[in-house]
Amino acid sequence: MVDETTDVSTKSQFSIVLRYVHKGVAKERFLGYCDISENKTAGAIVEKIRQYLTEFVCNEKLVAQAYDGTNTMSGNKTGVQTQLKETHPFALFVHCYAHILSLVLTKSAELISECKIFFSSAGGFASFFSMSPKRMKYLDEFFCKHLPKASATRTWNYSSRLVSTLYEYRPQFIDAFEAMLAHPDELDGDTLAPVHGFLSLLNDFQFNFLLETFNNIFAYTDVLYDVLQHQLSDILYCRQKIAQVQQEIAALRDRYDEIYEHTKELVGEPTKRLNTNYKRLYNEVIDTVANKMESLFEDYGQLKFLSLLAHQKFQAYQWAFPDDLFKSLLNTYGPFFDEIRLKNELIVLYSSEEFSGKTVPEMAEMFDDDVMKISFPQLDKLVSLIYTIPVSTATVERSFSTMNRVKDYSRNTTLEERLSHLALLSIEKDLVTHLLRNDQFYEETINNFCKHQRRLEFLYK
């Protein structure tokens, strides 16, 4: 799992985490930071990742890769995930589901200049009110609704809340800004200066046109966001919801006239000086979001095999073996398994009371026993595989908990090596505690420290 983070000096680094199963438990280990300020291309990042994989002897074991949805990382032509598959063909691309929907939005904003301006302007509303209690007083006076804070690292869920709040409470915002202008003596110049600009935006045709457009898109994608967070163990259900949302977004193309006329009724005709082709803009937004979603979920169909160990379906599988799911596994990870033996072990699994109702983590603990490993070697591999892929067994908060902690260590600037080592000591404190139980650890640490010429004599007593 790799994610980019930027410290207060705008120095870019990526942090890398390995996820694996050890003694029946899924582990996530932070390996360190890597400075990519000078070269942030996909090729350079891939080369760094390969160096880590080689150093930790993981090349033959890499079964998945998880990043956010930026073009550099997730691009299906020249992105990191595509280039890494050239040398690691089994590294199925799995997205960080905390980022997916927000990054579809981000891609829309990055590719379409009008959208960049729109989201920058919308974020200004949240920043404006959050910076002063006096400003919040006016907001509370007209409606008790606080805006979500805008941030480049927040999820789509925050962006959708911002858009839906501006869309739903537009009249109240206008009343609040007009009240500010009516009482200039109560406010300072820094507060009054942006008010005219915000009022102008709330009466601008393009801003309101895009506000309604994205509000309609979010009405569907927010539902999908919640489904992906809480239903990832049921891949087939998720696939159905993804397909449904993609169809609903595609159907929005037919609503252009409705949105255009509603915006015209709200704020009047668009300004002639802008000369914007709104139908082109509208179709470009819909196409960009639809195409990006298709790209993000491209590998998702290959995850159907995760349902092979969905314990709720064991009874149904007992009577009708899930051949399509089994073929999905073989198509993706076939070389890792003995096909005939695995199928026989799965048949036993579905009919055995010993495995009945057992989740993947619970089965992983069972296979920590040597007898179970010898009896079901192929099933042991399958459980470890499914437990390793982050989307299969954990919520967004759990699967990327390590990455969230890593980001917390990047808010100050220090040398890359020192930053990595300090973060490593803190994040992996359980390992450090384990090492400290061995007296030999102290001796080796002191010997290593004393390799450099020092005036003091260091002795451990």
TrEMBL record:
Tell me the domain of life. Answer: Eukaryota
Q: Pinpoint the HAT C-terminal dimerisation domain residues.
A: 373-431
State the organism named in the record.
Answer: Bemisia tabaci (Sweetpotato whitefly)
Q: What's the protein here called?
A: HAT C-terminal dimerisation domain-containing protein
Single GO term (MF):
protein dimerization activity
Pfam families linked to this entry: Dimer_Tnp_hAT (PF05699)
